[in-house]
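Session log. Operator J.P. requested a structure for one protein chain; no other inputs attached. Running the standard single-chain path with token output.
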Amino acid sequence: MRQAWRWFGPRAGVSLDNVRQAGATDIVSALHEVPIGEAWTEAQVRERKSLIETTPAGRTPLTWSVVESIPIPDAVKRLGGAAKHEIAAWIASMEALAANDIRVICYNFMPVVDWCRTDLDYVTPTGSTAMRFDHNTFAVFDLHILQRKGAENDYSEADREIAGDRYAAMGAQEIADLTRNIASALPGSATEPLTIPAFRDKLEAYSGIDANRLRQHLIEFLEAVTPVVEDLGVKLTLHPDDPPRSLFGLPRIASTEADYAALFDAVPSPANGMCFCTGSLGVRADNDLPKIARRFAERIHFSHLRATTREGDGRSFHEAAHLEGDVDMVAVLRELLAEDRKRDKANSILFRSDHGHRMLDDLNKEVTPGYPAIGRLRGLAELRGIIHALDARALA
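Structure written below.
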């Protein structure tokens, strides 16, 4: 398996030498500055690739291997195959990447908001901080800040009472922080930052779109792009919903083993793959991660390895240290390594330590939420240790 690192570019505060020092060899990046829906050009991709892969004398070379992500425009999620202009632009971006020999593309299909957290610096017992999704705080935003039409039907009476009390006790800054965390698009997000009125308008635009219809729109997108994907030798990897359940009454269709099976049955091309994110899938207690990895092993081209801890109410969770929480990382890696040993090096599974606690010196500086250098370094080192141990056992 090839060790990768998500890099947000030269302004993100983590240098390419930092990546080398962490021991990663492959870069996961994207042209985040290009507006969603606008086609990437070969020249833009070539410039970023040159920045990553031009190796100073005496330094370890790095390879831009994975794009995360080419965002799927909102029109595609709402209209499916009818969003021809947006799909054509997406294909053009993919062609620009393939022309520069970058052939693994991660994407998601979450409507309006993608990955969602209520707290970016939840203090853990060690004094490090982690990202957290708190169900009751989310209800505060949904019921009292966004004031979504019909939201009260998605919460119990007890939920509504807790949310009301919590909202009444919040100050203006707390409300602003919560609004920013949920509505303003977290790092790497494939959706646009939204004001509250724009948020309501987006939700209204999805009125009448249920899970079956959203799934059909994804299938139509895949049917449109897959012939080009196959011609270019590209692998698509669909990231799971995060969290893997409905938010704001919207459907989510990449949350379970059954969800992925339905998509693979509908579009059976081997290029139609998955990004196996253990943290996202692990939020659901009914997701058997080693079983999912085993069933879809041939379709896993990219993996996010992280752990989450489900909290007492079963609806809240926080990011755990990579070898803690509710993910059996040893069992997961055993399955991924078994698949990886069947492949040639060029098709080896790429993985990255995803997210990470904010700790040590990162507590004293501005860092990209979810992507501090030191926490991810710790995670990658721990994952590397498991891989070495499992490889040694396999050779014994």
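Operator note: The chain has a mean pLDDT of 95.
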